[in-house]
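Pipeline run #58 for the internal structure catalog. This entry was flagged by the ingest filter as a single-chain record with no existing model, so it goes straight to prediction. Upstream metadata was stripped on purpose; only the residue string is passed forward. Reviewer on rotation: M.T. Logging verbosity set to normal.
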Amino acid sequence: MAYQNLLINNKERVLTITINRESKLNALNKATLAELHNALSDAFADKQVGGIIITGAGTKAFVAGADIAEFADKDINGGRELAQIGHTQVFDLIENGSKPVIAAINGFALGGGLELAMACHIRIASDNAKMGQPEVTLGLIPGYGGTQRLTGLVGKGKALELIMTADMITAAEALQMGLVNYVVNPEELMPKAENILQKILSRAPLAIAASIKAVNAAGKSNVNGFEVEIEEFAKCFGTADFKEGVTAFLQKRKADFKGE
């Protein structure tokens, strides 16, 4: 499929999605969100794809926010629809996906950009990156799960501070508070993301998917995460990968997982 706002590259089972609106600092407009939904859905369904990296074009921005021009004529119902569609079709799709998704934050990650990064399973930032939730300066609050995921990552007090002050923080500050996993030099950003994904891809794919599901359950108040863990743990015993993993361990060799 040809995309207008995304660049897609598939190398060694790692699919890289680059948001390609550099002149707009890669802002998320309606068309870009629709393309992300299609690209991510295809990637999760493609057996040749093991993991995904999301990044932004250029050196200035990962995603500098939503395209505010599209907000101007919205009323309450329009705002609700805007939040709901983006939340379910992109941000929840990423978080609940069966394959690991890494955000390679190569510059500004503000508003919807930070929300996109937080929906990913792992975040790596270049040392020149800046992050923040500036929505209250527009008379809004963070959407696309921003209030929920930020709280889960950094805690209630720090989340409220970042949201209510609308302050930007540096990559080093984000690392200190647990918002990102690593901070690296800009030229090391993509190699670091690829290295982590290749390590994950050497593990059992069905166990990785089960791990994502079980860990996600920890943040859901209407779900018993322990029960989810028990169920996912049990399911692993019915997989060929489990038998291969145990056999390889006992034979003192490297396991050859098939995702079966």
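catalog note: The radius of gyration is 19 Å.
catalog note: Strands lie at 6-11, 14-19, 51-56, 61-63, 101-105, 108-110, 122-126, 130-132, 168-170, 182-184.
status: ready for reviewer M.T.
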